[in-house]
Amino acid sequence: MSLALQDAGMTDDIGTRLKLVRQIFGLTQRELARRAGVTNGAISLIEQNRVSPSISSLKKILDGIPLSLADFFTLNFSPSDDVFFTADELPKITHQPEISWRLVGRKTKGRALGMLQEVYQPGADTGDTMLRHEGEECGIVVSGSITVTVGVQEKTLNPGDAYYFKSDIPHRFRNLGDEPCVLISANSPPTF
Protein backbone atom coordinates (compact mmCIF):
# COMPACT_ATOMS: atom_id res chain seq x y z
CA MET A 1 0.00 0.00 0.00
CA SER A 2 1.59 3.29 -1.06
CA LEU A 3 -1.01 5.62 0.42
CA ALA A 4 0.83 8.25 2.45
CA LEU A 5 -0.25 8.55 6.05
CA GLN A 6 -0.69 12.27 5.52
CA ASP A 7 -3.36 11.51 2.91
CA ALA A 8 -5.02 9.07 5.30
CA GLY A 9 -5.54 11.84 7.86
CA MET A 10 -3.15 10.27 10.41
CA THR A 11 -0.49 12.99 10.63
CA ASP A 12 -0.64 13.64 14.37
CA ASP A 13 3.11 14.29 14.25
CA ILE A 14 4.19 10.82 13.22
CA GLY A 15 7.86 11.76 13.54
CA THR A 16 7.62 12.75 17.19
CA ARG A 17 5.47 9.69 17.90
CA LEU A 18 8.01 7.38 16.21
CA LYS A 19 10.88 8.95 18.16
CA LEU A 20 9.02 8.53 21.48
CA VAL A 21 8.15 4.91 20.72
CA ARG A 22 11.73 4.16 19.64
CA GLN A 23 13.08 5.71 22.87
CA ILE A 24 10.52 3.91 25.04
CA PHE A 25 11.71 0.61 23.56
CA GLY A 26 15.35 1.65 24.14
CA LEU A 27 16.38 1.64 20.47
CA THR A 28 18.76 3.95 18.68
CA GLN A 29 17.86 5.15 15.19
CA ARG A 30 20.59 2.91 13.83
CA GLU A 31 19.30 -0.19 15.67
CA LEU A 32 15.70 0.40 14.57
CA ALA A 33 16.87 0.91 10.97
CA ARG A 34 18.84 -2.34 11.11
CA ARG A 35 15.89 -4.28 12.53
CA ALA A 36 13.45 -2.82 10.00
CA GLY A 37 15.75 -3.17 6.98
CA VAL A 38 15.72 0.54 6.16
CA THR A 39 18.40 3.21 6.20
CA ASN A 40 19.31 5.17 9.30
CA GLY A 41 18.63 8.32 7.27
CA ALA A 42 15.05 7.21 6.60
CA ILE A 43 14.34 6.91 10.34
CA SER A 44 15.96 10.30 10.93
CA LEU A 45 13.95 12.03 8.20
CA ILE A 46 10.67 10.56 9.48
CA GLU A 47 11.42 11.58 13.08
CA GLN A 48 12.16 15.13 11.89
CA ASN A 49 8.82 15.13 10.00
CA ARG A 50 10.71 15.87 6.79
CA VAL A 51 9.28 12.74 5.16
CA SER A 52 5.80 11.27 5.55
CA PRO A 53 6.08 7.49 5.28
CA SER A 54 3.57 5.34 3.49
CA ILE A 55 1.48 3.05 5.66
CA SER A 56 3.45 0.05 4.41
CA SER A 57 6.78 1.78 5.16
CA LEU A 58 5.67 2.69 8.67
CA LYS A 59 4.41 -0.85 9.25
CA LYS A 60 7.81 -2.21 8.14
CA ILE A 61 9.57 0.11 10.61
CA LEU A 62 7.17 -0.76 13.44
CA ASP A 63 7.69 -4.49 12.78
CA GLY A 64 11.30 -3.84 13.82
CA ILE A 65 10.18 -2.81 17.32
CA PRO A 66 7.71 -4.90 17.17
CA LEU A 67 4.59 -2.77 17.47
CA SER A 68 1.33 -2.83 15.50
CA LEU A 69 0.03 0.19 13.62
CA ALA A 70 -3.00 0.26 15.91
CA ASP A 71 -0.83 0.34 19.03
CA PHE A 72 1.43 2.99 17.47
CA PHE A 73 -1.50 5.34 16.91
CA THR A 74 -3.31 4.63 20.18
CA LEU A 75 -0.44 4.76 22.69
CA ASN A 76 -1.08 7.61 25.10
CA PHE A 77 2.05 9.70 25.63
CA SER A 78 0.33 12.30 27.78
CA PRO A 79 1.85 12.49 31.22
CA SER A 80 -0.52 11.39 33.94
CA ASP A 81 -0.74 13.15 37.27
CA ASP A 82 -0.96 9.72 38.91
CA VAL A 83 2.48 8.30 38.20
CA PHE A 84 4.39 9.06 41.38
CA PHE A 85 3.06 9.10 44.94
CA THR A 86 4.53 10.49 48.14
CA ALA A 87 4.17 8.42 51.30
CA ASP A 88 1.34 10.64 52.56
CA GLU A 89 -0.61 10.04 49.32
CA LEU A 90 -0.97 6.31 50.01
CA PRO A 91 -4.36 5.93 51.71
CA LYS A 92 -4.67 3.57 54.65
CA ILE A 93 -7.37 1.05 53.79
CA THR A 94 -7.63 -0.90 57.05
CA HIS A 95 -9.48 -0.02 60.21
CA GLN A 96 -7.48 -2.21 62.57
CA PRO A 97 -4.93 -0.20 64.58
CA GLU A 98 -2.45 -3.10 64.61
CA ILE A 99 -2.51 -3.54 60.80
CA SER A 100 -1.76 -0.87 58.21
CA TRP A 101 -2.38 -1.49 54.52
CA ARG A 102 -1.49 1.48 52.30
CA LEU A 103 -2.57 1.31 48.66
CA VAL A 104 -0.56 2.58 45.69
CA GLY A 105 -2.51 4.29 42.88
CA ARG A 106 -5.96 4.09 44.43
CA LYS A 107 -7.47 6.64 42.03
CA THR A 108 -5.77 5.22 38.94
CA LYS A 109 -8.51 4.40 36.44
CA GLY A 110 -8.67 0.85 35.12
CA ARG A 111 -6.08 -0.51 37.55
CA ALA A 112 -5.22 -4.14 36.79
CA LEU A 113 -2.97 -4.48 39.82
CA GLY A 114 -3.30 -3.75 43.51
CA MET A 115 -0.06 -2.94 45.32
CA LEU A 116 0.18 -2.45 49.07
CA GLN A 117 2.67 -1.55 51.73
CA GLU A 118 1.59 -3.69 54.67
CA VAL A 119 2.67 -3.22 58.29
CA TYR A 120 1.71 -5.77 60.95
CA GLN A 121 2.41 -4.84 64.57
CA PRO A 122 3.52 -7.63 66.96
CA GLY A 123 0.50 -9.86 67.63
CA ALA A 124 -1.43 -8.55 64.59
CA ASP A 125 -3.60 -11.11 62.82
CA THR A 126 -5.89 -10.79 59.80
CA GLY A 127 -8.44 -12.79 61.80
CA ASP A 128 -9.74 -16.26 62.48
CA THR A 129 -11.81 -16.11 59.29
CA MET A 130 -9.39 -16.75 56.46
CA LEU A 131 -9.21 -14.22 53.64
CA ARG A 132 -10.37 -15.33 50.23
CA HIS A 133 -10.83 -13.43 46.96
CA GLU A 134 -10.38 -13.73 43.21
CA GLY A 135 -6.96 -13.64 41.54
CA GLU A 136 -3.37 -14.08 42.58
CA GLU A 137 -1.31 -12.51 45.33
CA CYS A 138 2.38 -12.16 46.06
CA GLY A 139 4.61 -10.28 48.44
CA ILE A 140 8.06 -9.92 49.88
CA VAL A 141 9.00 -9.25 53.50
CA VAL A 142 11.04 -6.07 53.95
CA SER A 143 11.56 -6.24 57.73
CA GLY A 144 10.36 -8.28 60.70
CA SER A 145 8.65 -11.62 60.19
CA ILE A 146 5.16 -12.79 59.23
CA THR A 147 3.50 -16.18 59.47
CA VAL A 148 1.48 -16.84 56.32
CA THR A 149 -1.12 -19.60 56.12
CA VAL A 150 -2.34 -20.63 52.67
CA GLY A 151 -4.79 -23.51 52.74
CA VAL A 152 -3.09 -26.21 54.84
CA GLN A 153 0.41 -24.78 54.34
CA GLU A 154 2.00 -22.40 56.84
CA LYS A 155 5.40 -20.73 56.95
CA THR A 156 7.10 -17.92 58.86
CA LEU A 157 8.78 -15.55 56.43
CA ASN A 158 11.70 -13.26 57.25
CA PRO A 159 13.26 -10.29 55.40
CA GLY A 160 13.81 -11.17 51.76
CA ASP A 161 11.44 -14.16 51.87
CA ALA A 162 8.40 -14.07 49.62
CA TYR A 163 5.09 -15.74 48.81
CA TYR A 164 2.91 -16.22 45.72
CA PHE A 165 -0.46 -18.00 45.65
CA LYS A 166 -3.92 -18.08 44.11
CA SER A 167 -6.06 -15.84 46.32
CA ASP A 168 -9.16 -18.02 46.18
CA ILE A 169 -7.31 -20.39 48.54
CA PRO A 170 -8.15 -19.32 52.12
CA HIS A 171 -5.20 -17.42 53.61
CA ARG A 172 -4.17 -15.57 56.74
CA PHE A 173 -1.31 -13.33 57.94
CA ARG A 174 -0.07 -13.19 61.56
CA ASN A 175 2.86 -11.42 63.15
CA LEU A 176 4.02 -13.77 65.90
CA GLY A 177 7.30 -11.85 66.33
CA ASP A 178 8.39 -9.09 68.70
CA GLU A 179 8.81 -6.35 66.09
CA PRO A 180 6.62 -4.86 63.36
CA CYS A 181 6.63 -6.66 60.03
CA VAL A 182 6.73 -4.61 56.84
CA LEU A 183 5.99 -6.24 53.51
CA ILE A 184 5.19 -5.13 49.99
CA SER A 185 2.43 -7.07 48.26
CA ALA A 186 0.58 -7.12 44.96
CA ASN A 187 -2.64 -8.75 43.81
CA SER A 188 -4.31 -9.05 40.48
CA PRO A 189 -7.02 -8.25 39.80
CA PRO A 190 -6.98 -5.57 42.49
CA THR A 191 -9.01 -6.43 45.57
CA PHE A 192 -9.09 -2.88 46.94
Structure described in brief:
The chain is of the alpha+beta class and 192 residues long. The protein has two domains: 14-74, lambda repressor-like DNA-binding domains (434 Repressor (Amino-terminal Domain), Orthogonal Bundle), CATH 1.10.260; 87-188, Sandwich (Jelly Rolls).
Descriptive notes:
This is Transcriptional regulator XRE. The chain contains five helices and eight strands. The chain has two domains: 61 residues, lambda repressor-like DNA-binding domains (434 Repressor (Amino-terminal Domain), Orthogonal Bundle), CATH 1.10.260.40; 102 residues, Jelly Rolls. With 192 residues, it is an alpha+beta fold. It has a five-stranded antiparallel beta sheet with strand order 1-2-8-3-6, with no helix packed on it.
- Uncertain residue ranges: 1-11
Q: What is Rg?
A: 24 Å
Tell me, what's the shape? elongated
Question: What is the structural class?
Answer: alpha+beta
Helix and strand sequence: HHHHHEEEEEEEE
DSSP helix count?
A: 5
Straight-line N-to-C gap: 48 Å
CATH superfamily of the largest domain: Jelly Rolls
Mean pLDDT: 87
Helix content bin? 10-25%
The total tally of domains equals 2
- Find the CATH topology of the largest domain: Jelly Rolls
Which CATH-level-2 architecture of the largest domain? Sandwich
What fraction of residues sit in β-strands? 25-35%
Major sheet attributes: 5 strands, antiparallel
SS elements, strand count = 8
CATH class of the largest domain: Mainly Beta
